[in-house]
Amino acid sequence: MRKHLMTTSAAMLLAMTGAAFADMDAAKGFLDAEIGDMSVLDRAGQEAEMQWFIDAAQPFQGMDIKVVSETITTHEYESKVLAPAFTAITGIKITHDLIGEGDVVEKLQTQMQSGENIYDAYVNDSDLIGTHWRYQQARSLTDWMANEGKDVTNPGLDLEDFIGLKFTTAPDGKLYQLPDQQFANLYWFRYDWFNDETNKADFKAKYGYDLGVPVNWSAYEDIAEFFTGREIDGKKVYGHMDYGKKDPSLGWRFTDAWLSMAGNGDKGLPNGLPVDEWGIKVDENSRPVGSCVARGGDTNGPAAVYSIQKYLDWLNAYAPAAAQGMTFGESGPVPAQGEIAQQMFMYTAFTADMVKPGLPVMNEDGTPKWRFAPSPHGVYWKDGMKLGYQDVGSWTLLKSTPDDRAKAAWLYAQFVVSKTVDVKKSHVGLTLIRESSIQHDSFTERAPQLGGLIEFYRSPARVQWSPTGTNVPDYPKLAQLWWQAIGDASSGAKTAQEAMDSLCEEQEKVMERLERAGVQGDIGPKMAEEHDLEYWNADAVSKGNLAPQLKIENEKEQPLTVNYDELVKSWQ
Length: 572
Fold this sequence. Notes:
Elements: H1 9-17, H2 24-35, H3 43-57, E1 64-70, H4 73-90, E2 93-99, H5 101-114, E3 121-125, H6 129-135, H7 141-146, E4 178-189, H8 191-194, H9 197-207, E5 213-214, H10 217-227, E6 231-232, E7 235-236, H11 248-255, H12 258-262, E8 281-282, E9 288-290, H13 302-318, H14 328-331, E10 342-347, H15 351-354, E11 371-373, E12 390-396, H16 403-416, H17 422-429, H18 435-438, H19 441-446, H20 453-457, H21 475-490, H22 496-517, H23 533-542, E13 561-562, H24 564-571
Parallel strand pairs: 1-2, 1-3
Antiparallel strand pairs: 3-12, 4-10, 4-11, 4-12, 5-13, 6-7, 8-9
Helix pairs in contact: 1-2, 1-4, 2-3, 4-17, 11-21, 21-22
């Protein structure tokens, strides 16, 4: 999720125009130097949109506005290129700070608790949608755009063009966050190794079916076993890559929908209802009622425990030994070094770093030796469930920010997601948010260099990947529990069952405190009575639901693979 790129054109533009010279000369200089035809709008459309920003910004010229996001390539481009350009064009001075993802959440939490205006706008994960809705400290953008913010809402914003709005809409039907960047967790594999005739023949001889993209975890496990220890191009290779250090980054490895891939929770897109992929159950009024199986939740149910056990088994048996002591950031570059055959769980935000010329995983003609494909699912998974995670970093305006500052920040937020700039920004960071950008001719041309990323985003499969949903009542408090509990499993201090028992109990303690405090009103937690797994499974089935599922005795199902090229053709 976190790497680097720089452009100097915006800095040159500032030198040419002067920071506060807000008119079309600055805009035209920016369009010439940075955008060109990398836009879904023609030049007249670009200039018209820039003129609207100039006019709307008039009352706020000279203001110093501060916004913040995590440090990823997309946001570096915004901070270093788009923020100075916006300043030159509008006269609103923007400071776009880049800090760690955890630090963004901490600043946001501090502002929500203290009422002190630390930042005028935040790019924070849509995983906080349940938090924002229940605490009512973030502005409803639906209400904002219709009322106080109407005069600073771009008529060309075109909300329907955004592919992630379902993720930033609360159960009340209102939009609370505007997507700025989006990327998925997909299956990654060495396309060249999978198509090697010797590898194909040896795999078929050993397992009795074709080597291909695994549809289920059973096939993934066979492929991991097959490649681990195999010699390719004079090197011993591995069939799997992951990380296991007890560190905060271990938390999002699991909250980012790992349990749903195994089959945890209920059917439903973008998230399971009434039980979501965290195993948190809500009632008919969207009030969280429990996390443990004893209250009808699924955080410690058979599907969740299976997901943790498979993670541990594969990490120990099929990944390089060093992976067990690695964090997210340390493990991320390893597949690009050329010794990994497949990875279940690859953030597409790494794409820009995986396609650099000269890497062992790149061909001389600039095409990758690898591909992205849909993630395989576990034995508890059923059609109609989500199949993976999408990160959707989204603009959020807190009510504690004064109206004039929120308006100026809202103008900047719309500028960096505007149709004028989005295609160019998408090429830099490869974090796609607009359908019009995904379909742009420039991405059709570039698709062969991106290993299936564009094909995925143009496919019907895309809807099965989604962020954390609205069942999670307080993301900052609950998310930090995961790495500690699962870290105990990865270190061997607890079994998978013990770790998930501990996790669901800790989640319920937070929910019980929220219920006692009453801070979330009539949409906060209301804990259910306790019963056993069989009771809650029967209750779920009687209502047409799934979770919590009973344990499947044979969790090694019939393995299934699919030919990658045939899969891509089926999407088209």
